[in-house]
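Help needed: design a sequence for this.
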């Protein structure tokens, strides 16, 4: 039975799963959802579960959340495993993934959206990527409400954006230090830990395989441009992981 991934194209948690599916050479189709309008679809799929994406549907199974989906993919499709079989590499990989999911994922999202939501012409195409063209028009017309809702839902404001920047810098420094000494975060091969690190930071180094229309460098908010320039060496290390294994 076909694999279907319900997603936001812009979501870095969804990029984790796109990458895992591609890494395992699995055929799949994506259903791109519009933030906000996605809730009804996702809750119907999960029979009243949470409203978050990604959601993967395969052979009658519905799996929600990037970590649980990776578990399912490794269990169901054993080739090219992303979870190390041996200890302590397995424990280390799962520890890194959870830590990055809990800290880096929300931090990148908060910091980026705090600045991007101030520029509707840039952020609307990112939010509507892969959906029908009219969603861009609808979202633009209702943008003030979208801005208010996203900031409230994800607790995005100047203070939380600064806190998020600090979290990103701390983890990025730690990751860069580790990658300067060894090729992988856990064990002797590429794992879900490396995939998670590079996928969750990907919106800040904006790789080509990511299925959204990244803004031209000149249109990126100045604050993000300055930060990216300052942290370019560390981001390049994760960019190399991405290019080598994506």
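Sure. Designed sequence:
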């Amino acid at each position: 039975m076909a694999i279907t991934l319900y997603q936001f194209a812009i979501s870095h948690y969804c990029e984790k799963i796109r990458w895992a599916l591609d890494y395992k050479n699995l055929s799949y189709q994506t259903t791109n959802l519009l933030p906000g309008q996605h809730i009804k679809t996702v809750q119907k799929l999960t029979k009243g579960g949470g409203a978050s994406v990604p959601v993967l549907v395969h052979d009658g199974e519905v799996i929600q959340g990037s970590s649980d989906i990776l578990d399912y993919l490794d269990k169901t499709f054993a080739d090219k495993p992303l979870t190390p079989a041996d200890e302590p590499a397995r424990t280390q990989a799962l520890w890194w993934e959870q830590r990055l999911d809990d800290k880096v994922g929300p931090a990148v999202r908060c910091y980026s959206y705090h600045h991007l939501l101030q520029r509707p012409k840039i952020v609307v195409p990112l939010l509507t990527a892969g959906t029908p063209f009219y969603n861009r028009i609808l979202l633009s017309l209702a943008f003030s409400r979208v801005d208010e809702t996203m900031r409230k839902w994800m607790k995005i404001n100047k203070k939380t954006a600064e806190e998020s920047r600090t979290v990103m810098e701390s983890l990025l420094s730690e990751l860069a230090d580790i990658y300067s000494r060894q090729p992988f975060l856990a064990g002797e091969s590429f794992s879900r830990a490396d995939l998670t690190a590079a996928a969750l930071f990907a919106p800040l180094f904006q790789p080509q395989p990511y299925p959204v229309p990244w803004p031209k460098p000149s249109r990126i908010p100045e604050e993000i441009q300055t930060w990216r320039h300052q942290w370019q060496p560390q981001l390049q290390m994760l960019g190399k992981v991405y290019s080598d294994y994506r």
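Residues 16 and 240 are 16 Å apart (CA to CA).
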